[in-house]
Amino acid sequence: MKLLNNFFQVAGPALSHRFDATAYLLDGGKELLLIDCGTPEGYNDCISNIRKLGYNPADISFILGTHGHYDHVGAAALFKRDFGCKLYLHEADAQRVIDGDGLKTTAWLLYGSSFPPCAVDGFLKDGDVFKYDNFTLEVLHTPGHTPGSVCYILTIQGIRVLIAGDTIYGGFSMHIGSSEERWRESLDKICSHHFDAMVIGHSNPVLLADADARLRDARASFANYYNPWFKNFKDEYKY
Ligand SMILES: [Fe+2]
């Protein structure tokens, strides 16, 4: 589904499989990028969604992961096998993906599946910038949900979009290396930037407006993210 010119959501519960986090296709002009790529269960539908948009998955050069979880990059080995896509992740989440660690990737912890191990072709660092004809993408290292979680600042058609992964509204578990302290610091870091809009790791295809206000709310009550007894406040946001 098209979110903006050259920016599409291609995986997620409403588009591919209920296990899938959101994944995004970016058309850079000369090559395509994916931000996250969903699970093996959603792989065929994700590929089909890319083709329906008129793109050839073989033109995807890179998968840039938000973090090393099954629902976000579980299908990376399949994209690599079928289309030669390279996977980039922050170094702190790379080993769990290389090993196919079912606990740290949440593959069996949350989904009863196994994680297809995948080589990591490059490490993302805070401040890395990817420049294309149609957009610019900057990496923000935002540990907390996992040690290697990153967000992306997408600047496209003059609009600044936060691609948040699970740093906003993600779950907390010691099993996956979550840290309250690091997460709070990351939320402060995110809130020091201005965003016109944002997308998050688990949602229907939607570009969320009023991002600065939503992010301030998220920072102010972030423990609600992982306390199942609270209704997630994102569901109570009024618009
Ligand atoms: Fe996650």
Topology of this protein?
Layout: E1 2-4, E2 7-11, E3 23-27, E4 32-35, H1 43-52, E5 60-64, H2 70-73, H3 76-83, E6 86-90, H4 94-99, H5 107-111, E7 122-124, E8 129-131, E9 136-141, E10 150-156, E11 159-163, H6 180-191, E12 197-199, E13 208-209, H7 211-220
Parallel strand pairs: 4-5, 5-6, 6-7, 11-12
Antiparallel strand pairs: 1-2, 2-3, 3-4, 8-9, 9-10, 10-11, 12-13
Task: Explain briefly what this protein structure is.
Helices cover 23% and strands 23% of the residues. It has 239 residues and is α/β, with parallel strands linked by helices.
3D architecture notes:
The protein is an alpha/beta fold and 239 residues long. The protein has one domain: Metallo-beta-lactamase, Chain A, CATH 3.60.15. Helices cover 23% and strands 23% of the residues. The strands form two sheets. It has a seven-stranded mixed beta sheet. A hairpin with a 2-residue loop joins strand 10 and strand 11. Helix 6 packs antiparallel against helix 7. The mean pLDDT is 93. The site of fe (ii) ion has 5 residues, from loops.
CATH superfamily: Ribonuclease Z/Hydroxyacylglutathione hydrolase-like
Radius of gyration (CA) equals: 16 Å
Mass-distribution shape: globular
The main pleated sheet reads as:
7 strands, mixed
Strand content: 15-25%
State the CATH class: Alpha Beta
- The second-level CATH architecture is 4-Layer Sandwich
- Structure class: alpha/beta
Which ligands are bound? fe (ii) ion
Helix and strand run = EEEEHEHHEHHEEEEEHEEH
Helix content: 10-25%
Query: What is the third-level CATH name, the topology?
Result: Metallo-beta-lactamase, Chain A
